[in-house]
Amino acid sequence: MNTRYKIYHPYISPFDPCPPMQVKSFSTPPHLYLGFQPSNLEQFSPQEALRAGTLWKVFYDPYYSPYEKPTGGI
Fold first, then answer.
1. Cβ–Cβ under 8 Å, residues 3 and 25
2. Are 61 and 74 in contact (CB under 8 A)?
3. What keywords does the record list, in alphabetical order (predicted)?
4. Full-prediction pTM beyond 0.85?
5. How far apart are CA 26 and CA 68, in angstroms?
6. Considering only CA atoms, which of 23, 30, 22, 38 is closest in space to residue 3?
């Protein structure tokens, strides 16, 4: 199953001076799951593309910190 957020359990040393984080997460970009770019992909308008950072909607990835709630799109 491909998800955009992955989690892992880092090594916790018995000598850590602070209470460690048990689980950490990271985001993966959507282009990793496509393999190749199909033709006729849906596109943003030029103004939306500048805000999104990509022309194609399938490659848009609004990054959200694991500590914040996702809000609307562009």
1. no
2. no
3. Capsid protein, Virion
4. no
5. 14
6. 30
CA–CA dist 13, 66 (Å, integer): 24
Give the separation between CA 40 and CA 19, rounded to whole angstroms.
51
Tokens at 4, concatenated:
């955009």
3-61 confidence digits (pLDDT tens)? 778 899 999 999 989 998 899 888 888 888 888 888 888 999 999 999 988 898 888 88
Cβ neighbors of 22 (< 8 A, separation 6 or more) are 9, 12
Q: State the alpha helices, DSSP H only, in the chain.
A: 46-52
CA atoms within 13 A on the CB side of 47: 1
